[in-house]
Amino acid sequence: MSRSVLVTGGNRGIGLAIARALADAGDQVAITYRSGEPPAGFLAVKCDITDPEQVEQAYKEIEEKQGPVEVLVANAGVTRDQLLLRMSEEDFSSVLETNLTGTFRVVKRATKGMLRARKGRIVLISSVVGLLGSAGQANYAASKAGLVGFARSVARELGSRNITCNVLAPGFVDTDMTRALTDEQRGKIVGQVPLGRYAQPEEVAASVRFLVSDDAAYITGAVIPVDGGLGMGH
């Protein structure tokens, strides 16, 4: 069955891999993006999730063109890394505004249609950093850890309506962002990972595809690590 899917931040990296995996499975996939040219093959909607009006307009366009959102993957996020003593209040609050409050906005809006339909799948893309911590990323780690408490509360609220809400916590993934690191930096990171390599975006996407499938109908409130063993025990 072809479902109406929304992947926020679906124009590159992990988000694009997720959008492609769900489209390949037969779903109608909409993506949001903030800048640049979006990839072909999806209903691309320009939307900054820090703006409630843009979120509302994005949902209206998606609903008109492919129906109410049945599967939401909240992937959009930002980083503004800095050591704590040098981190400004704006550095901290802006990351939480996008990663945590922005996710709240898109989830809240999606649940309107899901509650009416009495079914839905929500997956929030967190990070191993939200569980493990990372020097210089107090803002990012706080925002990604916050997604866990948020998702589990949503799972308890909406479970009786056949709506699941789960969290995926990727580790280091081979994307444009990590390719910009030096060989020395990449080597240090890989040295911490028991499997000894970066994840491919498609490996993260495969786990999302499982969580939104019928096979995962009895999984909700879970945090699924896709991190090569980096964060085990957290």
Instruction: Give the C-level CATH assignment.
Output: Alpha Beta
Q: Number of helix segments?
A: 8
The CATH topology name reads Rossmann fold
Radius of gyration: 17 Å
| Count of the separate structural domains | 1
Number of strands: 7
The portion of residues forming beta strands comes to 15-25%
How far apart the termini lie comes to 36 Å
Summing up helix and strand content along with how strands pair, one would put the structural category as alpha/beta
- CATH second-level architecture: 3-Layer(aba) Sandwich
The helix content, as a percent range, equals 40-55%
The sequence of SSEs as H and E is EHEEHEHEHHEHHHE
CATH H-tier superfamily: NAD(P)-binding Rossmann-like Domain
Average pLDDT rating? 95
> Given the C-alpha coordinates, what overall shape results?
globular
Question: Which strands sit side by side, in order, in the main sheet?
Answer: 3-2-1-4-5-6-7
Poorly predicted tracts of residues = none
Major sheet characteristics = 7 strands, parallel
Summarize the model shown.
The protein has helices at 13-24, 52-66, 89-117, 129-132, 138-158, 176-179, 183-192, 201-211, and strands at 4-7, 28-33, 43-46, 71-74, 120-125, 163-170, 223-226. With 234 residues, it is an alpha/beta fold. It has one domain: 3-Layer(aba) Sandwich (Rossmann fold), CATH 3.40.50.
List keywords for this structure.
234 residues; alpha/beta; Rossmann fold; 45% helix; 15% strand
